[in-house]
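ZP: hey, is the flavin-adenine dinucleotide complex queued? I don't see it on the tracker
AM: it wasn't, my bad. submitting now with these inputs:
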Amino acid sequence: MSKTDLIIIGGGAAGLMEGCAAGELGLKALVLERKAKPGRKLLMCGNSRCNLTTNISEDRMIQMFGDPVGAFLDPALRAFTPSMSQRWFAGNGLKTVVKTGNKVYPHMDRAADVLNLFTDLLRDQNISLACSSVVQSLEKTTDGFRVTTDNFVVESKYVLIATGGVSYPKTGSVGDGQEWAKKLGHDLETYRSGLAGFEVEPAVIKDRVGKIYEKVTVDVFSNGKVIGQTRGVFEIEKWGVGGTALTDASRIVARHHLKNYVLKVNKFDGTAEEIRPINTRALKEAMVTVGGVTLSEISFKTMESKKMPGLYFAGEVMDVDGPTGGYNLQAAFSTTRLAVAAVGKRLGKKGYPETRAPEPRYSSRKRAPSRQRRR
Ligand SMILES: Cc1cc2nc3c(=O)[nH]c(=O)nc-3n(C[C@H](O)[C@H](O)[C@H](O)COP(=O)(O)OP(=O)(O)OC[C@H]3O[C@@H](n4cnc5c(N)ncnc54)[C@H](O)[C@@H]3O)c2cc1C
């Protein structure tokens, strides 16, 4: 049995960034990932183009998350802001570009470039990434935690759970982290579909499948009151209605636990249509999970459990979700960097650069050398 400073469970957006941040701090860390390759969901992000973050201020971002998530994320988003995120990627050799709606993408529009950047940094910083390592259990020991996989057992004083939500389970996020948290005394918020489309009566989509309405606003009404408004695209799909304006509306429905609601779609040409959905699409089809480890049991200043010192959370395993547009990855990056900063502090690491972007590792005009060439 070996020991390391920090065990990170989950090699997705949060876990990979955590490994990189641990490396920046000079920590010994081990990332455990159940799949044969890390970052399966990351590769799907933004239709494989990866909408990394937004080009708006942290104040606006916090406001857009809405409470309770915005209030919880406040210190994390101020410690690693959306602009720091852009600088961090650029400083590590991946230029980003801002597109419509303030969405930030890697300049070649390839999610794979983001994943390669993470794995290159882990390798360069001697952070171990163990794939095909399904963590079966997480237990408390007298001075830390024991993590058991199918093939080995490892212990550490500090563990970070970054196992994601429960949507798109084929990517590896199936709710294990939430179950361990529950066994270790945490409450879970019920899972709901966030950022999903809506199933509707056939009459709503009849003769319109494939039609896209740009620049719509959607008012979410419940009991005669507007609960929220979204804007973006409205698309008629085979299975129902979707598009960014509708998926964002599903998050409002989930966050407010709405049962009876109407969506009023205001179109660019001045017309409007009212839709009374049958249901939000199934959670496995949602882009994010609303629900997860209860926020009141996690310190928003450090991401450490209030119930189990030494245990940290990052990303979607918590009851954290945001609208479309790069909010969810930014939340994963900011929460995970806040967590590693706290672990670093506990281990006596001074001068953690969480609020500064590192100096460029490569010329900003050149792309980082490919993995093969650098090996
Ligand atoms: C289709 C789609 C498109 C999206 N597009 C965007 C976008 O463009 N911009 C954006 O901001 N957000 C987007 N999101 C949301 C974003 O992908 C997630 O919010 C983000 O990936 C959450 O990061 P995470 O690290 O918390 O979880 P994940 O990325 O899900 O990573 C969790 C990891 O933990 C591993 N794991 C789970 N259990 C175990 C275990 N027992 N042992 C070992 N490993 C385990 C999983 O295999 C997985 O790799 C999108 C989501 C989807 C589904």
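AM: back. Residues 327-346 form the longest helix (20 residues).
ZP: great, adding it to the tracker
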